[in-house]
Amino acid sequence: MIIVYPDKLLRQKSSPVKPEEISGPEIKKLIADMREWIKKADGVGLAAVQIGALKRVILVEVDGELKVFINPKITRKSWKKTAIEEGCLSVPGKHGYVNRSEKISVKALDESGKEIKLRAAGVPAIIFQHEIDHLEGILFIDKIWKK
Ligand code: ZN
């Protein structure tokens, strides 16, 4: 189930996944469950906390494909900002504009525990920032400047 605001869990910080946990049954099941829920909800991004797990795992749609990022970190962000009307599966019915960096660099682990680095611009960059905020207990509604 996708938990919704004002559930207090959404305000908690998620903990890093240990490298040896990645291939374990708990994380495998978590990723499978996240894929199932995001598909059901037809979403483009999801953080583990949204299905009740305080782990630093996110799903982001990149190039039309849902990819898993474990312990994601933004290593660079552009000064130039952009904004689109955002929504969140955990905040049904709410939409609003949030300033985000237009371009970012991300470092993370993939499902096999391999380190990946990528750059994102535009919508995928926004999704990354939105999902990584979830790992800190931050919701997009905290940052809306225009409805
Ligand atoms: Zn969200």
Structural write-up:
The protein has helices at residues 25-41, 123-135, and strands spanning 45-47, 57-62, 65-77, 81-82, 85-86, 96-97, 100-101, 103-109, 115-121. Strands 1-2-3-8-9 form a 5-stranded antiparallel beta sheet. It contains 2 helices and 9 strands. It is α+β, with helices and mostly antiparallel strands and 147 residues long. Helix content is 20%, strand content 30%. It has a single domain, classed as Peptide Deformylase, CATH 3.90.45.10. The chain binds zinc ion.
Q: What order do the helices and strands come in, and which of them pair?
A:
Blueprint: H1 25-41, E1 45-47, E2 57-62, E3 65-77, E4 81-82, E5 85-86, E6 96-97, E7 100-101, E8 103-109, E9 115-121, H2 123-135
Antiparallel strand pairs: 1-2, 2-3, 3-8, 4-7, 5-6, 8-9
Bound molecules: zinc ion (ZN).
Outline the low-pLDDT stretches: none
Mean pLDDT, to the nearest integer, reads 97
Which cofactors or ions or other ligands sit in this model?
zinc ion
Radius of gyration: 14 Å
Question: Looking at the structure, what is the overall shape?
Answer: globular
Strand percentage, roughly?
25-35%
CATH class: Alpha Beta
Order of helices and strands: HEEEEEEEEEH
Can you tell me the CATH topology?
Answer: Peptide Deformylase
Quaternary organization: single chain
Q: Can you tell me the number of structural domains?
A: 1
* Order of strands in the sheet with most strands: 1-2-3-8-9
